[in-house]
Queue: 2 jobs
Job 1
Amino acid sequence: MTDTLSLRERRIGFFLAILLALLGLTMAAAARHGAMAVHGVIAMAIGVALIFLIAGSLYDPDADPARKDRYYDAPTQAGIFFTLIWAMIGMGAGVWVAALLYWPEATPLWPATSFGRLRPVHTTGVIFGFGGNALIATSFYVLQRTARTRLADAISPWFVVIGFNLFCVWGVTGYLMGSTQSKEYAEPEWYSDIWLVIVWVTYFVLYMRTLARRNEPHIYVANWYYLAFILVVAMLHIVNNLALPVSLTGARSFPVWGGVQDAMIQWWYGHNAVAFFLTAGFLGMLYYFLPVRSGRPIWSYRLSILSFWGITFFYIWVGSHHLHYTALPYWVQTLGMTFSVMLLVPSWASAGNALATLNGAWHKVRDDATLRFMFVAAVFYGLSTFEGSFLAIRPVNSLSHYTDWTVGHVHSGTLGWVAMIVFGAIYTIVPHLSGREAMASPRAVEWHFWLAVSGTLIYVISMWNAGITQGLMWRTYSENGALAYSFLDSVRAMAPYYLLRTIGGALFLAGAVVCTWNCRKTMRAVPMGGSASDRPLSAQTPPRRPFDAEPAE
Amino acid sequence: MSGADDDRPVDPVTGYQTTGHNWNGIIELNTPMSRIAVWALVLAFLYSVVAWILLPAWPTGNHYTRGLLGLDQGAEAVDGYRQIHDARQGWMARFDDPDFAALAGDPAVMAEAGPAATRLFHDNCAACHGDDGGGGPGFPVLSDGYWMWGGDPATIAETIRVGINGTDPDTRISEMPRFDWMSREERAILADYVAGLPAQSADPGSPAAQLFADNCATCHGDTAAGGLDNGAPSLADASVIYGQDAETVNTTLWAGRHGTMPSWSGRLTPAEINLLALHVLRLSQGRATP
């Protein structure tokens, strides 16, 4: 890491590491006990570790000047490392809590291991740890290559990667200690939220500065999506997390919103976390890696425009479909429902554009498991966006709401779409960064593909059955007007589905373990290289004027 | 994007022209906007417009457009509840002011109400008492015919209504006091004595028997069989609330017990309470379907 930084950059990094250690020390000293003190100690430990790491290189030789002729991929590599670590943590926690639903008596008599505390460890671990790191890592990679320029500076990408992971660590360790704002997907307390804002603004500024230096006349579609992801997530995060701390030295706060307004803000945030974190960013990933891997042009530029503006415009309205048949006024529910239905069109336009892009490359889909990951991702993207619009229709929602159908829907999106495209991207990037033609074990990629697909299908199908069964049992009356089933009956009916779900999740986790092993094997030993064309435009030989089009294949 | 531009390369697979953009090898086709996408968008928008006209939809300052159907979700919820309520009234009304003997003797009514009573019991009582009324640690058995507050249906209904150490002003109040003032040895022999009661292995002539007569019999009865309708359970039958091994009894003696049962008066209707009372009685007689 440090050998890619100039001496000046190392000194800046050293200074920032001292600041981080001091921040941690201040938090720990001010809070003295509780989650905030532990988090201060964690920040201080990371700061001190970085101080030692960088101090050891302060008097080493300066970085190779030729590095400017390369894309800066070290932060991407670190991001992929964190992606895989968080996959183990988040998916592992997921399989464990799924097992607890089947064997609740297996819960140890230790509060930190209760279902309620581990469940957000799973969601934060997979959404932010796994998904977020993958987005950050790939965004740096894609941004540089589609802008044909090196990242604007070398410090801020590290600040973003390390800072974001500190946020994730604060989150999951806080939950284990019982520290939470009790807002789904926005559980971390106020100081973590402020920290994330700093990290996120740095990310945005870095992205814009690099984009401004681009050597291409047009901004590629993937960057539209990555930018939408960065910008809108900042807005959502800030508004939903507006809170008043009980004291500046403790990890407790109260949201400034109350009652149904709070619920509406929460689900405006919650659904747009799905939209702009779990969809827009990953569409950016799809838009880069699918054409690169398949060697085919994007099928329709015009459809890309329709999809992008349709998705960004419609998604912002639909959060209220999480609050059908609640104290939320009917008119807000109607708007959420109708915009959800309209949203299907740009969503399917994206999925269709991706699948049509594969025209002329279907033999590669058959032969290349990596491209098959992306193909399956596009299919599941289409399936789960259809399901989402369908579930947002009020009468349908009256059956599905509060059931495991919702859980199945979310996982068809996150396992089938988000994780599949991440693995497709990882299997493209990792050999590339390691200067190899392919992953160390192509057979392991094939194994991973089938583990992931079968795990997803088992998971999703069992949850569909579970959810529809629950919904029907809860609403069925006997002829005499009495409920036909007690709630207990519906819980008992879930047993086989919960067992199957655990098995499906375990298969998916096993695939991720295989992937991690394969990536480690690929990344070892071989130095970073890359082809001659994989350089910023300024380093191309023979030099070409900017905006020269390359001939098509 | 203004019409055909012949300088742009053509993709050999599809025959479509590209947009001329190129990002390190990624190119795009200038495929015309597909008709299906446009039509789908128009259709989805029309669906939305129809929904907006029919349903409450757009805010207008302090109000909102009510929609031609005039729907109100509060009214719909109340209406749905009324319908279910009316569908039940045919047989449920019989339980409003019950003649328990007549109800229990009417197979037609019980055939109609029996399954409903089971659901009601499962949804409200089973979490503590078990779905068959078999009890569990801390919660009495309801199916064994031993009663702490009386076992006729009207009394059971009253217990459900007011609860035990509950929130209802008329709640039943009961407490096993602490016997922490006894000496360690006294508690130990008394615990052994009580633990031996169900198996009738307790020695009636022992000092422990004297301790029992002096301190416990007032509430639990001279023969330890309970049944005084004061909340004190029988100590002589096989089923126990907190455990009847010597160690648990010792804990109970030292720390006392203060179990609670919620007052159900606000949550269940009088008819539902009466129905449950009959169900509990039938459980104890082995006549109800658990």
Job 2
Amino acid sequence: MLISKSEEAFHALYASQAGGVRRFLRGMVGGNHQVAEELTQDAFIKAWKALPTFAFKSTLKTWVYTVALNTARDWLRGHGGKTFVALDPETLNAAETESAEVRAVREALLELDEETRALLMLHYYEDLDLQEIAKILGIPQGTVKSRLFTAKGKLRPKLVAKGFAV
Amino acid sequence: MKNEFEKLDRFMREHKPALETSRPMKAPRARSWWLPVAAGAALAVALVVTVNIQNHNAALEQEAVAGMEALDWDMNEDELPADVSDLVALVD
């Protein structure tokens, strides 16, 4: 169905993955809703255009996240690796409704380098297993496991500094 | 083996941001190969028709001039030739 490139197929892919992809991208770029929205649309358009090259070596889910991660990397590179939280109404509104803990976690993740941040978000937020994360990051599963251990070791003191006993 | 990040893992999973809704988007349409071909073909047909009309008009003009020359008749100065006059009278 997807290879037929029908609009219905695209909508099915978008409906099932857009929420997670947008959450992931928002975390990557610093909580900015507008940027996350633009990058989500951008990632899905790229995924759609590249669909004929999809070789079924991974699931569509991991493939879409791979495109999303590359989209985030491009954006961060274009902004000198700097993330920022814009004061657009949607972001401010979300900041009000988000719990203090969730905000603190977001901030702690933003203090980490982008590769560590991506790894932790794929693991904790998107609930992807080692094999899926390995596909997305293009590294062996064993490397994912060791990097995850290191990443958790980097995250914990950030949260402790914010007053959480983790 | 004890997971030394057990508390961190639990904390992180308990404080996961909610799934976010994106605005619906339209599937980008693949560029059809036939669209530029059809546009090109339509332009070519329009050009051919225009050239044909121009050629046809030029041919008619030439024919008219040749006819006038054959009759040795200047439409600004001369009366209608007798045979044409007869024809006009007949039509009237």
